[in-house]
What does this fold into?
Amino acid sequence: MHNAPCPEHARGLESDLKTILARRQALGWLTAAGGYATLMLSGCGGGGAAAGGNTNISSTATLTATSSSGSSCTTLPTETAGPYPADGSVASNQTLNALTLSNFVRSDIRTSVDTASGTATGLPLTVKVQLANVNNSCAALEGYAIYIWHCTQDGRYSMYSSSITNENYLRGVQVTDSTGLVSFQTIFPGCYLGRMPHIHFEVYPSLSKATSASNKMLTSQMAFPIATCNQVYDNVSSYSSSASNFDQISFATDNVFSDGYSTQMLSITGNNADGYVATLTVGLAV
It folds into this structure.
C-alpha cells in the first residue's frame, strides 16, 4: 500500500510545474544566444517550493578543472532550497533560521540542539563534502561553511513537519579544513512521494557569514545512487514506507534531477550492517 504524500510536500506541486516551465524557458534563451556552456538549471528542493516557499531560481554554467595530480572538480547546478531550508529565508509561509541556534556548528547532526533534544533514528550515514576552486586547479577551499539538511527516514523535515516542529535534527554546519573537507554524521534519508532521495546544502564564504541565506554562495542538492537506495529501502524495516515511494519515482520524473544529476551524485561505500559513507566534491569559481 502506497503512503499518501505529506501535506507539506503536496503544496509544492503547483510551484513544481512553474519551475519546470521556467527551466525550459531559460534553456530556450541560452540556445537563442548561441551559448557554449552546458547549462545546469535549478529546481525545487524538498518536494518543490511550497506556497510562499523559497524560489531562488538561477542557472549555472558548468565549469570543470583538473589539478596537477589529475583529480577534477566541477561546479554544481544551483537548485532552490525548497520549502524547508530554515536558513532565514521565507519558506512555507514562515521565516525560520536554524543557523542562529546554539551549538548548531557540529559534525553529528542526528540529535537536536539549543532547547530541543530529540534524536533522529535511522541507518548511519557519514557525508563528506570537499570544496575545490575550479579557477585554481582544484585547490582546496579552507574556511568556508557548509550547511546541510535532509528528511528523516520517513520523509519528514525537522522544524516544519507536524510532530517535529520543535526539533532541529538532521541539520547542521561545518567549516572546511585545510583540505577543503567537512564531515557530517547523520542517517540515510528516506524517500517521500514525488522526489528522489536527496540532501540539501548551502555554501557560505565563512562561518561568520553562515547566519542567513542572504550570504550564501551556492544552494544545491546531492543525489543518491539507485542501487544503494534499493539496498537500504528493501532491506531495512524502518524504511518500509520509503521502499514503496521509491518505486514510484525516477531521475527522469524527478522535478530537480530530471535535467541532469551527474555532478550531484554521491559516491557511496558501505553496507546495511555497518552504515554508509557518502562523498562529493563541489567546485566553486572563486
Observations:
- Helices lie at 7-10, 13-32, 226-233, 240-246.
